[in-house]
Amino acid sequence: MFKLFGLGDEDNHEKKIHVRSEDDFDGSDEHSESGEASESELGQISLDVLENHQSIYILAPVAGVELSDIDISVHETTLTISGVRNKPKEFYENSMEIKNEECFWGNFTRKIILGENMDFSQIQAVMENNLLVIHIPKIRFDSKNIKINRIQS
């Protein structure tokens, strides 16, 4: 029903669905050659995808990420979550010695290819307690019995 990808090419015709305006996002995963992270250097966020008969829910813990630093976009059936997790300056810009560093800091992106039966015009995203929840309803196809009439000759 869906495929998960960490990285990939992006089309510039994405439709913004939440967080930032279309003007703030160029749709590209690659940054300029001015020293910013390239696509291969981007991190990923973990996520769970849950499904029932009516909807798909995507849950992504985003501790340490500001709401204004998250972009969610959709192009055709590919949903992309991208953003940045900044190091807390009060710790990392001081003269502290790092003894162990396991946390991921920097730009991240995650792509999910969904089925065509999703109602992408009704996508909703909320963030509460550092958990990003994306709700995508499914298109409802009503079943109908068709009566067969006999042709009389």
Q: What is the number of helical segments per DSSP (H or I, 4+ residues)?
A: 1
CA-atom Rg in angstroms: 21 Å
> What is the fold-level CATH name, i.e. the topology?
Immunoglobulin-like
* DSSP strand count: 9
CATH architecture: Sandwich
Unreliable spans? 1-35
Taking the alpha carbons of the first and last residues, their distance comes to 47 Å
pLDDT average, as an integer? 78
Largest beta sheet: strand ordering: 1-7-6-5-2
Number of discrete domains: 1
Quaternary class: single chain
Work out the helicity level: under 10%
How much β-strand is present in the residues?
25-35%
Strand and helix order: EEEEEEHEEE
Q: Could you describe the largest sheet, including whether it forms a barrel?
A: 5 strands, antiparallel
- Describe the global form: rod-shaped
CATH C-level: Mainly Beta
Main structural class: mainly beta
Write up what this structure looks like.
The chain has 153 residues and is mainly β. It has one domain: Immunoglobulin-like (Sandwich). Helix content is 3%, strand content 34%. The chain is built from 1 helix and 9 strands; from the N terminus they run E-E-E-E-E-E-H-E-E-E. The strands form 2 sheets. It has a 5-stranded antiparallel sheet, with no helix packed on it. Strands 3-4-9-8 form a 4-stranded antiparallel sheet, with no helix packed on it. It is rod-shaped, with a radius of gyration of 21 Å. The model is unreliable at 1-35 (pLDDT under 50).
Structural descriptors:
disordered N terminus, 5-stranded antiparallel beta sheet, rod-shaped, Immunoglobulin-like, mainly beta, 4-stranded antiparallel beta sheet, 153 residues, 3% helix
